[in-house]
């Protein structure tokens, strides 16, 4: 069953039914001001940090689902009938409905009884505000007397405090209203530096700022008493819950249409604002009146929207492909790239599955996300790398998360996730390969954001590698710490042997559980680091790094190979995890992908055998599950992984983040058909036809799809903010299509399905546009390369001379 359709020409997904299985969302904003918007106008807005600068309220886990957002109500003043053109919150059946989600904007349109309404929501580039452009048209044969009501509910800035500190917050709400503009100034008395505003382009017939005055006691957003009565009460919120509501009365003749613009914005005063002296009770409205006047003009709003479209078009055009598969084209050219940019902005902080309150920016997450967006915004990728490195500790470890606004590490979560440091190496290597900007390695970066502790970024990378080398367990494998990539595999929990009391074992770190996965990751990062060292002329360091990688490989072969696949780990008592010795959890996906990506098993058949085991034991029609058999009960010594029911999340769910590692591994052994087959199994566009099963958005990846052991096998959860986006982009573009940046130039080495006759691609790389054409001349993956008509040895396109802007690349596969 489908609930919409792709409009590839306009780079939009068009939803044609409002009652999607789950809210299908989009993101507004791409700089400092952001919003989440669903296909029925639900969601919220914030400035920079979704916890500390939350502008509007949203209630997760609400009933009805997805309640609270950017709502507009229309009221036919002749009949008294009212409805929401976005369907929510009134849910009145509409004659027609569409929601067009695009890059940084959404357009929700509907018709009911001859009244057409369309609202375009977007955030202009360079501004800290969002625009709602409402167009209303009278398609009846008689005059229409209509009232339009806008509505939002203000959050009291700190979203955590707002949702919990009621004894205080029910007494702090404050607003000002001037010339139809509603200014939200709660906490301005103490903070004195920021406020929100809600403005309207038309003359207002009334307003409300007190929630109960608008909704009525014991009433909800589906039936506000003000809309029902047809007249605002001009309430002023003092304490309780401030809202923003405008009423605009419109008379339309047959065929006539009218546009009304609403602005929701944020302003932060400079520290030395002379218009805001201490003790002042009035906010500095002068600072925002100019921007309000500008964007309340339709021409300016239209111009700003055109600029936004151009911005996204230029980003997406940096890498385009034309393959025989429409789902590959659609995801690479539009939606996967767009999702990568959203994960750049949000990490794992704010979605319909992340509250924006607790996690902030993930260290491991953001380093991996960078792999998918570095080619689109290299200058911002550089900034992100330096932010991440500054949360690293002098030991080489790192805070697992940090807050967007403060850039400070999250003390509540802390560090000791022992894979975290190595991801920085992969991110920096990817950046240099993409840009050729070696100067980043000499940038001075502090540890734990402490002034005076700065060292060159390259030393941060050295400490990242050393962190693993210095922390090995009894088998010589890396210590897992609190967890590795799988946060729920907590092998250093209090645990016990049968018949013994709960206990822990100790070494210099206090625990001895080890990770085969981190060993594989070390092989990947160590080789990348060696390549950087060699390119900088540090040949001795490069040799030492390769020696350390080879030593780790030997340990994996001795203690990490289980006979037909790579083991996952060793617990606190030295017992193997992910082994045929186990009754449950015998084989895990992560080490199969990461060890092979690190080069293990490629020369002795172990990689082929491990991938065969994955295909036989882990692969399903909906993707590859994380482990098998699923854990049927809770095991204290395994931690959170066994707390989930079988088939969900880390307990044998299809954790989509890891599936691309297997796709990449399959290309490394030359299996193009299998790699692309796995790619399509979790490709959201390919899954659009089963939306009633998948349930999640068909235009973006989800973190998880329920596994074969689940009652809802194939159901997706946790969409948008997932490392799945970046890794799938890397798998399809750099390994299956084979267009891969290197330190020496652009490598073109496709491993594509045998049935493909070839493909074309346009790739902007280091300021040069590469026009790439791949043609299959026979079976296999060996390449012959021509650059601007000249044959070139190998599969790396040499960097062109300075001033060259276009390069023609022809590749033959045989």
Automatic annotation (TrEMBL):
GO terms for molecular function: carbohydrate binding; glycosyltransferase activity. Residues 11-296 form the Glycosyl hydrolase 94 supersandwich domain. The keyword Cytoplasm does not apply. Residues 311-738 form the Glycosyl hydrolase 94 catalytic domain. It holds the Pfam family GH94_b-supersand. Keywords: Glycosyltransferase, Transferase. The keyword Metal-binding does not apply. One of its GO terms (biological process) is carbohydrate metabolic process. PANTHER family: CELLOBIONIC ACID PHOSPHORYLASE, CELLOBIONIC ACID PHOSPHORYLASE-RELATED. This is Glycosyl transferase.
């Amino acid at each position: 069953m489908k609930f919409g359709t792709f409009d590839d020409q306009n780079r939009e997904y068009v939803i044609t039914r409002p009652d999607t299985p789950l809210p299908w969302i989009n993101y507004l904003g791409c700089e400092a001001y952001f919003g989440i918007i669903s296909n029925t106008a639900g969601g919220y807005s914030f400035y920079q940090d979704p916890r500390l600068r939350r502008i509007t309220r949203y209630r997760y886990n609400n009933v009805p689902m997805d309640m609270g957002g950017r709502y507009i109500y229309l009221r036919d003043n002749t009949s008294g009938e009212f409805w929401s053109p976005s369907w929510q919150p009134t849910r009145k059946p509409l004659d027609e409905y569409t929601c067009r989600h695009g890059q940084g904007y959404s357009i929700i349109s509907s018709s009911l009884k001859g009244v057409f309404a369309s609202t375009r929501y977007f955030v202009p580039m360079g501004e800290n505000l969002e625009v709602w452009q409402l167009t209303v048209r009278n398609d009846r044969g008689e005059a229409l007397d209509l009232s339009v009501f806008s509505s939002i509910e203000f959050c009291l800035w700190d979203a955590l405090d707002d949702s919990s500190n009621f004894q205080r917050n029910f007494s702090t709400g404050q607003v000002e209203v001037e010339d139809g503009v509603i200014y939200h100034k709660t906490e301005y008395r103490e903070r004195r530096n920021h406020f929100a505003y809600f403005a309207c382009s038309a003359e207002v017939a009334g307003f409300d700022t007190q929630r109960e005055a608008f909704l009525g006691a014991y009433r909800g957003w589906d039936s506000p008493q003000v809309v029902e009565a047809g007249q605002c009460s001009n309430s002023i919120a003092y304490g309780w819950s401030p809202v923003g509501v405008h009423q605009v009365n419109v008379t339309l003749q047959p065929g006539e249409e009218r546009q009304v613009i609403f602005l929701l914005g944020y302003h932060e005063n400079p520290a030395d604002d002379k218009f805001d002296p201490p003790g002042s009770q009035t906010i500095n409205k002068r600072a925002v009146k100019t921007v309000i006047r500008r964007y309340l003009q339709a021409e300016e709003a239209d111009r700003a929207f055109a600029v936004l479209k151009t911005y996204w078009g230029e980003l997406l055009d940096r890498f385009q492909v034309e393959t025989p598969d429409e789902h590959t084209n659609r995801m690479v050219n539009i939606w996967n790239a767009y999702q990568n940019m959203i994960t750049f902005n949000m990490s794992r902080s704010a979605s319909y599955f992340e509250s924006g309150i607790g996690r902030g920016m993930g260290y491991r997450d953001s380093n991996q996300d960078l792999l998918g967006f570095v080619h689109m915004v290299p200058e911002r990728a550089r900034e992100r790398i330096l932010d991440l490195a500054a949360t690293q500790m002098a030991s080489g470890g790192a805070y697992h998360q940090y807050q967007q606004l403060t850039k400070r590490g999250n003390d509540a979560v802390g560090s000791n996730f022992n894979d975290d440091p190595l991801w920085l190496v992969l991110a920096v290597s990817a950046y240099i390969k993409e840009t050729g900007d070696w100067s980043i390695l000499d940038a001075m970066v502090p540890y734990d954001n402490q002034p005076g502790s700065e060292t060159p970024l390259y030393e941060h990378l050295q400490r990242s590698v050393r962190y693993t080398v210095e922390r090995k367990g009894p088998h010589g494998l890396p210590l897992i710490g609190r967890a590795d990539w799988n946060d729920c595999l907590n092998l250093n929990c209090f645990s016990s042997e049968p018949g013994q009391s709960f206990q822990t074992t100790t070494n210099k770190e206090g625990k001895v559980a080890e990770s085969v996965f981190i060993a594989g990751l070390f092989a990947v990062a160590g080789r990348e680091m060696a390549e950087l060292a060699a390119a900088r002329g540090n040949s001795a360091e490069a040799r030492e790094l390769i020696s350390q990688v080879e030593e780790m490989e030997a340990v994996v072969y001795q203690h990490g190979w289980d006979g037909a696949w790579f083991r996952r780990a060793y617990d606190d008592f030295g017992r193997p995890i992910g082994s045929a010795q186990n009754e449950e959890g015998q084989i895990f996906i992560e080490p199969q992908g990461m060890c092979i990506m690190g080069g293990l098993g490629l020369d002795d058949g172990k990689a082929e055998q491990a991938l065969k085991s994955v295909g036989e034991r882990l692969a399903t029609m909906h993707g590859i599950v994380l482990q098998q058999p699923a854990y049927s009960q809770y095991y204290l010594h395994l931690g959170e992984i066994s707390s989930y029911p079988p088939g969900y999340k880390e307990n044998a769910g299809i954790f989509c983040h890891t599936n691309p590692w297997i796709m990449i591994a399959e290309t490394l052994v030359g299996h193009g058909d299998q790699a692309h087959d796995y790619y399509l199994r979790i490709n959201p566009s390919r899954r659009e036809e089963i939306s009633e099963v998948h349930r999640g958005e068909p235009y973006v990846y989800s973190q998880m799809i329920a596994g074969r052991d689940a009652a809802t096998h194939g159901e997706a959860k946790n969409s948008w903010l997932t490392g799945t986006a970046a890794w799938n982009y890397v798998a399809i573009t750099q390994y299956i299509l084979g267009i891969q940046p290197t330190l020496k130039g652009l490598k073109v080495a496709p491993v594509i399905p045998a049935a493909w006759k070839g493909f074309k691609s346009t790739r902007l790389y280091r300021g040069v546009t590469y026009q790439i054409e791949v043609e299959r001349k026979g079976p296999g993956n060996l390449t012959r390369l021509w650059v601007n008509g000249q044959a070139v040895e190998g599969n790396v396109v040499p960097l062109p001379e300075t001033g060259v802007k276009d390069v023609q690349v022809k590749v033959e596969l045989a």
